[in-house]
Amino acid sequence: MSILVACDHENGQFGAATLNAVSAATEIGGDIHLLVAGDTSNSIAAHAAAIAGVAKVLVADGAEYAHGIAENLAPLICDLATGYSHILAPATTTGKNIMPRVAALLDVMQISDIIKVLDANSFQRPIYAGNALATVRSDEAVKVITVRSTAFEAAAASGGSAAIESIGNTGDAGLSSYVKSELSSSERPELTSAPIVISGGRGMQDGANFAMLERVADKLGAAVGASRAAVDAGFVPNDYQVGQTGKVVAPDLYVAVGISGAIQHLAGMKDSKVIVAINKDDEAPIFQVADFGLVADLFDAVPEFEKEIG
Amino acid sequence: MKVLVPVKRVIDYNVKVRVKADNSGVELANVKMAMNPFDEIAVEQALRLKEAGGADEVVVVSIGPSQNQETIRTALAMGADRGLHIEASHDIEPLAVAKLLKAVVDRETPGLVLVGKQAIDDDCNQTGQMLAALLGWAQGTFVSALEIAGDKAKIVREVDGGLEHLEIKMPAIISVDLRLNEPRYASLPNIMKAKKKPLDSLSVDALGVDVSPRLTVVKVEEPATRQAGIKVADVKELVDKLKNEAKVI
C-alpha cells in the first residue's frame, strides 16, 4: 500500500501543514510519497525529502503548477492515482481547492477534513461545525482525503532522506491564470501553528484597537486572530478569521478578547488546550468553554494584562 | 447569460444540533431548517449580476425531499426567476450532487454556476470543485469579489495567507465566501409573487444519475465537552493562573 501526500507550498515557502498530513499518512500505514508541484519545486523538494517517514518525493516542475491552480494540478494528481491506495492533502485553502476536483475526476467520494484515522478505510471527521463527529468508512479504490492539521502532530521536518524523482508534466489547461496576491505580512507566528493565539472580536470596536492585542502577542510570541464579526466589520483582513469557515487553531493558549462565542467561532478554537475569555458580558457563551474567564472591559483588562505578563 | 444557483436546505445556523440517541446521525425532526447561508450569498450575487445587466435569468436548483421546495421559494422571493426541484429521499453525497448538477447544466446551459463554498451541515466543501471537474470548467473557489468581462471573470479568493486574484475562463463555477455580499431579505410582496413563479420537479432517475452513497456513516457522536472553567476576579489572578497553574505563559 502506498500513500501520496500533496505537498503544500506557496511563494517558495514549504507549507508546514504538510507535516501533519504526513503524520496522518503514517497512521494509515504504507509507503509515503510526497508530490511537489510548482515552479520553485527543487528547493521545496529538498525540504520534502528531509521529512521523517517519507520514502519518495515526486517533483513536477512547471509554471502551470505555481499558485495551486486546481485545473492544472488535478490532472497531474489523477495521472499518478493508480499507484496509490490513498491521496492526502492538508485541509488548507490550497488542498480544499484541488482535492475535490481530483476526487471527481477519479469518480470517488472525498473525505474532507479528517481528525482521526481509525484504520486504512475508516476516518473521523467533524460535521455541523464540530458539534458532531462522524465516523465514515470508504470502500473506494483510492481514498481522497484532506487532513485537519490541528488534529495530527507534525512529522519531524528532518531526519529523512527520501529519493527525489522528476515526473512529466500534464500541461496547462488554459482555464485559470494567476494575477497577484495580497498577502498579510507579519513577523508573528503563523496562526494555525502558533503556540499562543490572541483573538479579538466585535468588542474591539475598531481595527486600530487591535494594536493592543498585537503588543500582547509580541510579548508572548503569539499570533493574532479574529472572529468573523471583526473581519466582516473590516477591523482586520480575512486571513485572521478563526472559525467554522476560517482557520482552525488548537494552540496551548487561546485568548478570546471581546468575542461573544458564536458556535461558528467555537468550531475554530475549542480544541485549544487552555482558553481564556475576556468579555464584559458575563452571559457571553464564550465563558462556557473558557478555562479562565474574566468579566471586564477589555480596554482596561488588555493593557493591564500586557503589563502583568512582564 | 443564464446563472444557475444550487441551494441546499440545512439546519438553521442558529440551531444547536443534537446527535440522535442511536448515533445514526443528527436530529432533524422538528428542527428549524433554512437555506445554507453560503448559498444565500450565491443567490444574492446572481441577483446583483442580473440587476447590473450581466445576467438575464437566475435559475435556482435544490436536491432533496419535497420540503426543499420551500428553500427554492425563498430564493424566488429574493428575486430568482425560476426553480428546479430534484426529488431525492435520502442524503445525497457531494459527488452525486455534482453529477446531478452536471445533468442540469447540460439541460439548462448556464454561462455561470454560483455555489456556496460549503454547506454548514456536512462541512464538506466539495460540490463546486467536483462540478467544475465533471464539466471541465474553470473553478473560482472561496470568492470574495467577482467581476465578469466577456469570456473572462476576474475573481478575488480568500486564501490562508490573505487574498489571491485570478482570471478564469467562462463558463465557470464560482464558489462564494462570506464577504462577497450581504444577502437581501425577501419583502412580503415578493414572497407573495414568488408563489406564482415557475417551479419544476424532476426525479433523480429522470436525470440518469446513480446517487447510491459511496461512504458509509458508521456512527455520529457528540464531541467531548469541555469542562466549564472558573471566573477569575481580576487580571492579576488571571496571569497568576496562566503562569503557575496552567503553565502556558
Beta-strand fraction estimate of chain B: 25-35%
* Percent range for β-strand residues of chain A: 25-35%
- Helical stretch count of chain B? 6
Spatial sequence of strands, sheet with the most strands of chain B: 9-8-7-10-6-1-4-5-11
- Helix and strand succession of chain A? EEEHEHEHEHEEEEEEEEHEHEHEEH
Count the DSSP helices of chain A: 8
Summing up helix and strand content along with how strands pair, one would put the structural category of chain A as alpha/beta
Radius of gyration of chain A over all CA atoms, rounded: 20 Å
Largest sheet of chain B: 9 strands, mixed
| Oligomer state of the chains in this structure | heterodimer
Overall strand count of chain A: 18
Output mean pLDDT of chain B.
97
Greatest interface: A-B, 90 and 80 residues
Stretches with pLDDT under 50, minimum 5 residues of chain B:
none
Shape of chain A: elongated
Shape of chain B: globular
Helix content of chain B: 25-40%
Structure, described:
Chain A has 310 residues and is α/β, with parallel strands linked by helices. Chain A is 25% helix and 28% strand. Chain A has 8 helices and 18 strands. In chain A, the strands form 4 sheets. A 7-stranded parallel sheet of chain A has the order 7-11-6-1-4-5-12, sandwiched between helices. In chain A, strand 8 and strand 9 form a beta hairpin. In chain A, helix 3 (70-80) crosses helix 4 and helix 5 (210-220) runs parallel beside helix 8. Chain A is elongated and about 60 Å long. The model of chain A has no long low-confidence stretch (mean pLDDT 96). By secondary structure, chain B is an alpha/beta fold. Helices cover 27% and strands 31% of the residues of chain B. Chain B is built from 6 helices and 13 strands. Chain B has helices at residues 37-51, 68-78, 94-108, 127-135, 188-194, 235-245, and strands spanning 2-6, 9-11, 33-35, 57-64, 82-87, 112-116, 138-149, 152-159, 162-169, 172-176, 199-203, 215-221, 230-232. In chain B, strands 9-8-7-10-6-1-4-5-11 form a 9-stranded mixed sheet, sandwiched between helices. In chain B, strand 7 and strand 8 (152-159) form a beta hairpin. The longest helix of chain B is centred in the N-terminal third of the chain and has 15 residues, at 37-51. Chain B is globular and about 65 Å long. Chains A and B meet through helix 3, helix 4, strand 7, strand 9 and strand 10 of A and helix 3, helix 4, strand 7, strand 8 and strand 9 of B. Strand 13 of chain A pairs antiparallel with strand 9 (162-169) of chain B.
